[in-house]
Amino acid sequence: MLQLTKRTEYGLLALVHLADREGAVASVREICERYPLPKRTVAEVLKDLQHAGLVDSTRGSSGGYTLARAPEQVTLGDVVRALEGAPPLTTCESPIVLKGGGCEVQPMCPIKSPIQRVRERLWQMLEHTTLRSLVSSGPHVSLGAPGAVESN
């Protein structure tokens, strides 16, 4: 149903690595040595995350990246929005239809409203799931109530 892009997966791996390092600078090379990821793509992803204000960069031979905010303050929604935007679930939410491409069923569509509620619930879950919850020592998100968190 919903599948994150490789760029978002790489971004999440890099962010978890930075969160594990607790403020220490990590280079693209270090991240890609830890996880078998393409350096060029990880560098591009980190640049996009920097533009979104999720990571800070330091230039130079001992340079690299650090989290711009505490892991508790970075949500999966922040990362997905920075790297791929809000993905549409139905064709009526696609940019082509929204720009006037039209949908012949839209005036009487029985699924638009329920699908929109599913999409909103998914985004709520992404917005309530923090980077800290992805770090092995942190709490894990429960699929129960929105924002519910359970400890290990």
What does this protein look like?
47% of the residues lie in helices and 8% in strands. By secondary structure, the chain is mainly alpha-helical. The chain has one domain: Winged helix-like DNA-binding domain superfamily/Winged helix DNA-binding domain (Arc Repressor Mutant, subunit A, Orthogonal Bundle). Strand 1 (55-58) and strand 2 form a beta hairpin. The protein starts with 5 loop residues before the first helix and ends with a strand.
Keywords:
single chain; 152 residues; mainly alpha; Arc Repressor Mutant, subunit A; two-stranded antiparallel ribbon; disordered C terminus
Describe the structure concisely for a colleague:
With 152 residues, the chain is mainly alpha-helical. The chain has one domain (6-138): Winged helix-like DNA-binding domain superfamily/Winged helix DNA-binding domain (Arc Repressor Mutant, subunit A, Orthogonal Bundle).
Round the mean pLDDT to the nearest integer and report it.
80
Low-confidence stretches: 137-152
CATH superfamily name? Winged helix-like DNA-binding domain superfamily/Winged helix DNA-binding domain
Query: What is the percent of helical residues?
Result: 40-55%
One letter per element, helices H and strands E, the order comes to: HHHEEHHHHEE
Number of domains: 1
**Largest pleated sheet:** 2 strands, antiparallel
Helix/strand/pairing category? mainly alpha
Radius of gyration: 18 Å
CATH topology, which one? Arc Repressor Mutant, subunit A
Q: How far is it from the N-terminal to the C-terminal residue, by CA?
A: 28 Å
Which CATH class?
Mainly Alpha
Strand order of the largest sheet: 1-2
Strand percentage, roughly? Answer: 5-15%
Query: What general outline do the C-alpha atoms trace?
Result: elongated
CATH architecture: Orthogonal Bundle
